[in-house]
Structure formats: structure tokens, C-alpha cells
Prior knowledge:
Helix content is about 50%, strand content about 10%. By secondary structure, it is mostly helical.
Amino acid sequence: MNLERPVFVDTNILLYARDTHYSAKRAVAQNWVQFLARRQLGRLSAQVLLEFYSAATDGAKLGIVANEARSDVEALAHWDPVPSDLALWRTAWRLADSHSLSWRDSMIMAAAVGARCGTPLSEDLQDGLVVDGTLTVMNPFAPQAPPPPDGP
């Protein structure tokens, strides 16, 4: 993992960092989020923020009270969210076609490209998948996944 470049964080990592039902995943996700925040290496997109807020406040999922979820979004907004614009969509269309990605995943990968990331952290995409020759997906919950360099 190249930590000289920003790391893109997918929605599921942020949700696990707040989820009390999966303690092992919660610890891993929290370690990564805290590490990236300290190093100012975390990046995400407007889509990730939207998905996070929606799932976090859904009573059937996390059920976090709206004010807490809003505070989380406010804090994560400092991670330079990639906006959803036509340039992002064009990159996503190209990635969807060239890598057979779902539309959601192609938007996530396009945002990671736009944020000049080297690694997207995601449980949803194949660990080790190389996208666009610049991104290597890492599932932080995979057995072989390394922890953050200065964390457990």
C-alpha cells in the first residue's frame, strides 16, 4: 500500500466504524479512519457521504440519531469530497465499460481516480483488484490485510 498518496474510503468502512454489531470490523474500520484522519490522507466522495448519512440514520441499519450522523458528515467533509459532476460520470462510464464494474462501484472508483488516490478501502470490491492502472483495492477486513502503519 502506497501511503504517499491519499486513500479513498468507501461507505461500508465508515459504517463499520460506527456499527456496534460487528466489533472486529468496527475496530479495523476505526483504526483506518483514525489513521487517515491524523495523516490527512482520507478521501471520499459526495456519493459516499450521501450513502453514509442515509444508512447511518436508517433505524433498520445503524439507527444513529440524525444530529450525530450530521456531525459525522461535517467532520468527514474535511476529507475533500469529490463532487458528482459530468467529468466524474464520464470517468465512471469509462471504468464501468473497461472493468465490468457496477454503476455504483464505477462511481466510487472514478471518485478515487479524481482524488488521485492509490488505494480505495472497500469491502465491496475484490481485494487486490487493479483499476485504471492507478488504483489497487484493499479490503481492510481480508485476513491478509495489513493494519494502518501506526495503529494496531
